[in-house]
Amino acid sequence: MKTTKSIFSILLIASLIFLVPSCAINPVTGKKQIMFVSEEQEIAMGAQYHPSVVSTFGIYDSPVIQKFIEEKGTEMGKISHRPNLKYHFTILDSPVVNAFAVPGGYLYVTRGILAQFNSEAELIGVLGHEMGHVTARHSAQQQTNQTIGQAVLLGGMLASKEIYKLADEAMAGMQLLFMSFSRENERESDRLGVEYATKIGYDAHKMADFFQVLEKMSMGSEQAGVPTFFSTHPNPEDRFNSVHRISDEWQAKYPGKNFIVDTNDYLSMIDGIVYGEDPRQGFVENNTFYHPELKFKFAFPSGWKLVNAPTQVQMAAPDQKAGIIFMLSDESTPAAASQKAISDLKLSIIESKDVKVNGNNAVAVISQQASQSQSGQQQVIKLCSYFIQKDGKVYTFHGIASDADFNQFLPSFQSTMKGFATLTEASKLNVKPDRIRIKTVQKTSTLADAFAYFKVPKEQYKELALLNNMELNQQLTRGKLIKVISQ
């Protein structure tokens, strides 16, 4: 009989042969690198990821901003290290300050980061940075590194009981290792962002200025919409100095050229953009979830945490022993929706009946799902599900808990689901989101004085100063454009 170690050696060799690594030439560095992902596969991965990204965040509809980003992004793509790649640009309907790229030329910016920019140059610099991830094939290389690392780690786990015991710690160590790779990727993307922005005529120094804004936001992390990319990006202060230095070097190659900043045109372009959470897509007041666009409401248990995403609403008990998922079904009737859910989730029906929920036809189902744990013990979870038809749509609730806890949470599940009703209150139906409004300073004054003139509540002064990347005592000249927030 072969030993575990020798069996693994055969499997590892076979898996590496199957992956067929190649020594590809990196388009940015010109150096050879081991790469398991071909360019065709990379493009296919991006096309596969894109619908998931869109369904997770939603698309923010702004034809003017979209046209600008597509035109400038396409221009930048043509002078990049991968000029033949087709680039795709999407504005995501998220208040979080973020920008990212996935393999194959798919680049994303959130409306949250667009609201935070104060010039075209800042946007172009960050867009160039994200394009740098694509041109340098960072995602493809990261996947290759993870494949190699996981294979080696798996070999150690199979060959040594001691390493197997430490598998969780070892995997965490691998993640930290690849995070450090990612930080180097970020630095390379900064360099590429400066290069690309400069080549199409923009002042890349403004990308460095934006890093200062990120640093201020991280220091006040209680603020909504805090950037999400600090976990993998280098320290903003380090990037600030580095990007300024690289910008000087690139601009020295174009003596006498005036590089574009364009604050006023950018501010005019984002005038009216939604700021923060959009209550039209759902909001919570006093443990009730309201959706003005779809005209429904339901109460959820006190103390439970609710997360509203474009594709579903998730609610979790304080002890995390139970949860409720709420979503739209693709089916046209409650019966069809319940049958599909039972099939897709491989559930066993305990009870199913037709019911009415505040005048709406519905199907109520109690079911369970059994599985085997790693130790061989059977695990059973139970679900209380309601499939409710309203205005031609079918809404689905799933209340989930372990078999041992299910009866304890069943009343909370049923109360939430039976509370689903048509939203009729005018104050909730007519709620409006906050928006960025661009104002013209009427006379020379400080930023604080300008806020007072435009009747900005004092509790917003600090947030709006950061939004404008200014200090409250900063002197503004007559005609200066600034951002305020109003409906």
Automatic annotation (TrEMBL):
<dbReference type="GO" id="GO:0004222">
    <property type="term" value="F:metalloendopeptidase activity"/>
</dbReference>
<feature type="domain" description="Peptidase M48">
    <location>
        <begin position="69"/>
        <end position="244"/>
    </location>
</feature>
<keyword id="KW-0645">Protease</keyword>
<dbReference type="GO" id="GO:0016020">
    <property type="term" value="C:membrane"/>
</dbReference>
<keyword id="KW-0482">Metalloprotease</keyword>
<keyword id="KW-0862">Zinc</keyword>
<dbReference type="InterPro" id="IPR001915">
    <property type="entry name" value="Peptidase_M48"/>
</dbReference>
<keyword id="KW-0378">Hydrolase</keyword>
<dbReference type="InterPro" id="IPR051156">
    <property type="entry name" value="Mito/Outer_Membr_Metalloprot"/>
</dbReference>
<dbReference type="Pfam" id="PF01435">
    <property type="entry name" value="Peptidase_M48"/>
</dbReference>
<dbReference type="GO" id="GO:0046872">
    <property type="term" value="F:metal ion binding"/>
</dbReference>
<keyword id="KW-0479">Metal-binding</keyword>
<protein>
    <submittedName>
        <fullName>Peptidase M48</fullName>
    </submittedName>
</protein>
<dbReference type="GO" id="GO:0051603">
    <property type="term" value="P:proteolysis involved in protein catabolic process"/>
</dbReference>
